[in-house]
Amino acid sequence: MEILNDEVLIQSYHKALELKLHEDFIQLLFQEICKRNLHSLSNDLPSMEKTTD
């Protein structure tokens, strides 16, 4: 995941949601966004509590 820059990571997350890709993949992207503390850059990201499912 470190290969993706922050912007591409967020774009990938949004595209994965749009295309309704596998939930595990979307969760992986979301967890990386949280790990990088990028969740504040996008208002339409779910709350961080979702990562504890």
Keywords:
disordered C terminus, 53 residues, 49% helix
How would you describe this protein?
- The protein is globular, with a radius of gyration of 10 Å.
- The protein contains 2 helices and no strands.
- It has 53 residues and is mainly alpha-helical.
- It is 49% helix and 0% strand.
- Residues 49-53 have low confidence and may be disordered.
- The N and C termini lie far apart (21 Å).
- It has one domain.
Describe what is shown at a glance.
Pfam families: Sda (PF08970). It comes from Alkalihalophilus lindianensis. By secondary structure, this protein is mainly α.
Outline the fold blueprint:
Layout: H1 6-18, H2 23-35
Tally of separate domains: 1
Gyration radius, rounded: 10 Å
Distance between the termini: 21 Å
Structural class, judged by helices and strands? mainly alpha
Given the C-alpha coordinates, what overall shape results?
Answer: globular
Please bin the fraction of helical residues: 40-55%
Question: What number is the mean pLDDT?
Answer: 84
Biggest pleated-sheet summary: none
- Contiguous low-pLDDT stretches (5 residues minimum) are 49-53
**How many individual helices?**
2
- Would you count the extended β strands for me? 0
Reading the helices and strands in chain order gives: HH
Determine the strand fraction and express it as a percent band: under 5%
